[in-house]
Design brief:
about 475 residues, alpha/beta, 4-stranded antiparallel β-sheet, about 45% helix
């Protein structure tokens, strides 16, 4: 069994068995990853950012493990919410989709997410969707009714296998109410008619547009080929979206093969409340980026295991992440004067890599990274292999992507005292304490605090952070 270049096993949580299992590619040495992307009618919020960052981290790991890796993340640019947004502004649909696709890309670059290998748009795949729908009708897994085409859930005996929900739970979680054109209450739309003022495409069932679920299956089939190794997305997509995807995909192929492994990240709660418009606690990434650097937000998102709910406490989450990154950039600053060394992803320490291989345990990996930062700051001499290890760890986490000067003198912190000045003041304070000149030591502490720098004494070590 091929376990990747490192020879170490990757273990991922399996939704159906509710336990971690050894991940085995469908084709040796090759992995195909598909992640549900945004519906581009508004700017991304922190809940949208979480899967983008989580699966960027996974993609970095998979690319290091397997000789052939393909990452596809889609753009949903046909949706009734997009139609409503365009109508409210009195503009064409593509004005909305192009604007918010651009914003999404800008936000993800700020969060240090690498681009996927393929980023298809739903509107570019109407022939593939129509072809898939026609085949489902031919196989009697779908039917036409009142200008709609619907998937017949009773035609697929294993419906519910992805989410693990029984029929009662599925009814409670379904998004769509029972309509007159449905034969069964759980049936879902593959194609629906469009009014004259709505976007539409010609089809055997009249001018219309696709339902939500069919686009992903069609794009996967075209660009990756079915089945695929991993399908990711937010936990809110597990049902009904991914359940419906799986059903139509298996029926289209007449095989119980669609996705080998489903991965879902937990939802984000803001100050212990679920994010919602009604509560007015939606945190937009663009607003957060006005106050904090993207790496701060990225680290805050990775500090909780991807499967767990993320409890976002605005001041605490950002302050903690910034403090950790300030220390890491002190390491970056320290090694900047040393000879440049070439590193590879294989240089990451085994304990760090093992954490990521254990169901993408980023909190544990970050703990090993922080330990490395503390170790390097405490050393007078840093070895070449340690620089390589530190650099490889930064790559996998997507952190420390700039030089220390840029970090500490970012636009939002342009008045900060430099790390070099801080270190000199700390050294002077330590000397004052050795000479029992505690008045001078207190004056230096106050001087640093006045400049937004807080120091903490732990034994013989003094650490600092910006506030």
């Amino acid at each position: 069994m091929y376990n990747g270049r490192s020879g170490m096993e990757l273990r991922l949580y399996q939704q159906s068995s509710k336990k971690k299992v050894v991940f085995t590619p469908l084709v040796e040495g090759e992995v195909k990853l598909y992640v549900c992307g945004p519906t581009v009618y508004s700017t991304a919020h922190i809940g949208n950012a979480r899967p983008a960052v989580v699966f960027d981290c996974l993609a970095r790991l998979l690319r290091s493990l397997y000789p052939k890796f393909t990452y596809l993340r889609n753009i949903t640019d046909v949706d009734d919410k997009i139609n409503a947004k365009a109508a409210s502004e009195g503009v064409e649909i593509d004005v909305i989709t192009e604007r918010y696709t651009q914003y999404f890309h800008e936000d993800l670059r700020a969060l240090c997410c690498l681009e996927p290998d393929i980023e298809p748009k739903a509107t570019e795949h109407m022939p593939e969707m129509i072809k898939m729908i026609k085949k489902l009708i031919e196989k009697e897994h779908a039917y036409e009714s009142e200008g709609h085409v619907l998937f017949s859930v009773p035609s697929y005996k294993n419906y519910g296998v992805v989410s693990g929900r029984d029929k009662a739970a599925r009814k409670a979680g379904a998004r769509v109410a029972v309509e007159s054109y449905k034969r069964n209450e759980e049936d879902f739309i593959l194609w629906k008619p469009s009014e004259d003022d709505q976007p539409g495409w010609r089809s055997p069932w009249g001018r219309g547009r696709p339902g939500w679920h069919i686009e992903c299956s069609a794009m996967i089939e075209k660009h990756l080929g079915l089945p695929i190794d991993i399908h990711g997305g937010g936990g809110d997509l597990l049902f009904p979206h991914h359940e419906n995807e799986h059903a139509q995909g298996c029926c289209y192929r007449s095989k119980e093969e669609y996705v080998n492994h489903w991965m879902h990240n937990g939802m984000v709660k803001v100050d212990d409340e679920k994010m919602s418009k009604s509560l007015g606690n939606i945190l937009l990434v663009r607003d957060l980026l006005e106050k904090s650097q993207g790496e701060v937000i990225r680290l805050a998102l990775l500090q909780t295991h991807y499967r767990q709910p993320l409890l976002w406490h605005m001041e605490e989450s950002v302050s903690t992440a910034r403090h950790i990154l300030d220390r890491a950039y002190r390491v970056v600053d320290k090694i900047a004067s040393l000879p440049v060394v070439e590193w590879t992803q294989e240089d990451a320490p085994e304990a760090f890599k093992s954490a990521l291989l254990d169901d993408l345990n980023t909190p544990l990996a970050i703990m090993h990274w922080q330990k490395m930062c503390k170790q390097l700051l405490g050393q007078e001499v840093i070895e070449e292999q340690e620089i390589k290890a530190f650099s490889a760890m930064n790559f996998f986490l997507g952190l420390c992507n700039q030089d220390a000067k840029s970090w500490f003198h970012a636009s939002t912190d342009s008045q900060r005292v430099s790390p070099q000045q801080i270190e000199k003041l700390i050294a002077a304070r330590q000397q004052a304490r050795l000479e029992k000149d505690y008045k001078r030591a207190d004056e230096i502490r106050q001087e640093l605090q006045d400049q937004g720098v807080w120091i903490e004494d732990s034994g013989t070590e003094t650490t600092w952070r910006y506030e």
